[in-house]
Amino acid sequence: MTAAPRVKVLSVERFESPYRLRLPFRFGVITVTEGRQAIVRVRVRHENGRQGAGYAAEALGAKWFDKNPALSDAQNHDQLRKALEMTGEAYGAAPWLSAFDLFAQHYRELLDAGMACGLNPLVTSYGPALIDRAVLDALCRIEGLSFWQALRHNRPGLRAHAIAPDLQGFALTPFLRGLQPLTTVAARHTVGLLDPLVAGDQAAGARVNDGLPETLEEVVAAYGNRYFKLKVSGQAEADLERLRRIASVLDRLTEPYAVTLDGNEQYEDAGAIAALWQRMSGEPALRRLCGATLLIEQPIRRQRALAQPVTALARHKPVIIDESDGDLDAFPRARALGYSGVSTKACKGLYKSILNLARCQVWNQAEGRAVYALSAEDLTTQPGIAVQQDLALVSLLGIPHVERNAHHFIDGFDGRPPAEAQAYLDAHPDLYQLQDGRVRLRIEHGQLALGSLSGVGFGSGVNPDLTDTAPMPRADWPPTAAETR
Q1: How many alpha carbons fall within 13 Å on the CB side of residue 254?
Q2: pTM: predicted TM-score of the whole model, two decimal places
Q3: DSSP H or E run through 53
Q4: 462-478: pLDDT as tens digits
Q5: Nearest to residue 405, comparing CAs of 371, 369, 437, 381?
Q6: If DSSP codes are grouped into helix, strand and coil, which group holds residue 190?
Q7: What is the rounded CA–CA span in Å between residue 95 and residue 260?
Q8: Taking a C-beta distance cutoff of 8 angstroms, is the pair 457, 134 a contact?
Q9: Residues whose CB is less than 8 angstroms from the CB of residue 174 and which lie 6 or more positions away in sequence, other chains included
Q10: 201-235 core/surface letters (b: 16 or more CB in 10 A; e: else)
């Protein structure tokens, strides 16, 4: 193919769609019972003269991007809205650029602008994370390519750039050409801190009874999951007791299972989480679960996570960063401290994930063995464009399992128009199914089938139905001192 095309962003529209959780989701410092999804529509002009629209969607996640307890959930939402506004304004004023250069040439400018108005890099990155996906979706549609085809032919124009100086000598185009998208990935089921594990855990009258599984044992029976993500709270005694109970369910499986432990920044330092692991290793009831543990994810508060080595813990299990992955320098800094991986999340940016995968290849070649890897994690990506773009990215990166939780905590396309849900079902019958009159994610034998994501567009050719979706309100950010709690 020819060199990567240049595009011009003509407009960026932002919308919000509310949803309810069928079960409360406890992780880190928050219990979620409802939420909002951001949806963006970006119109671009291709250098060939054609115009087209592209889409992206993501949860407006409170208390994950910024866990400052002085901020309300509403203020967290305004932070993310502000990130989208800043990115939309910058991209709209940009000259003709390739899709990647649109990201790369605004990367530092946006981080600096975010810092100037009190946004940390993880929050600021939310803006490009959505708008870059929508731009690429439009490019794919105009050129009649799938996301996988576009990336393997490097249509976004990824290249050596100062934003990742450690990759200056790395040939990105041949690297992309060598990627082989997976046609199936395993769904790694999230076990939140409040989730019932067995029948009888829920209080009388607390069952939802909506036809979907509610307890961990019901999830295993319904979906056939063999990969699990276990949340820990930072309270060692409570964590040990809960892990024993989880193990009592998972150990019933005759087939092998695998787990990851997610600390969500709940442990104060590396010593505290290393002590928990030592206690876990000494527990007969946790022997199989410890052996099945693949990695430990972001156990330490981000304020300290990249300030101290984790080598004592990493001797036992790989340790990765998630919330500490605020900018493109985070993974190299983490590597120097003993971390061997980083999460990929569509909400943090697709180009960041691809560059981090390239780093893993470079570092593993230097080591002569597979030491460094990406782990695929979730931000409650709902059915439709959000989950499909995330799955398309995970597939391209070659990661065999991905955390999925929206299908468990949200009933299908809750909050979205029925006609939109039906359109996604029609276009992606391998990924969705009609169950009890509702379109829901299809997980069979613990696996997600991704074949239909190979159509034109970034994971989907379906347009979200935005006829009755409310425009996103302007961000009330930064707040005045009186507005903070």
Answers
A1: 0
A2: 0.97
A3: strand 51-59
A4: 999 999 999 999 999 99
A5: 381
A6: strand
A7: 44
A8: no
A9: none
A10: eeeeeeeeeeebbbbbbebbeebbbbbbbbbbbbe
